[in-house]
């Protein structure tokens, strides 16, 4: 089930107690950033490469996509997506999967935040 489908079931059952919703997750995301490990390698190497030099990251690094989500309080979470076959690499799909994996890490963080508020009364 997708998050949207689960949300529909929760609403249909009338479960109205305080909880974290998909809208809460999206509202907590201040910005999102994508890059491959190859991009990171090239960026770091560019600090030391001689003028006019070239930077060639290992090809496998271009198959690993990262998503960094910056949350409303400045905390960051990451998600990754790795492609096994170079022929199947699709940047947009890799970004989507990496974002889903990052968002999965936001749920427990917001759950903890809500539970703290509930416990404080």
UniProtKB/TrEMBL annotation:
What Pfam families would the database entry show?
Answer: Phage_gp49_66 (PF13876)
Name assigned to this protein: Phage family protein
Q: Which InterPro entries does this entry report, sorted A to Z?
A: Phage_gp49_66
Q: Which organism is it from?
A: Luteimonas fraxinea
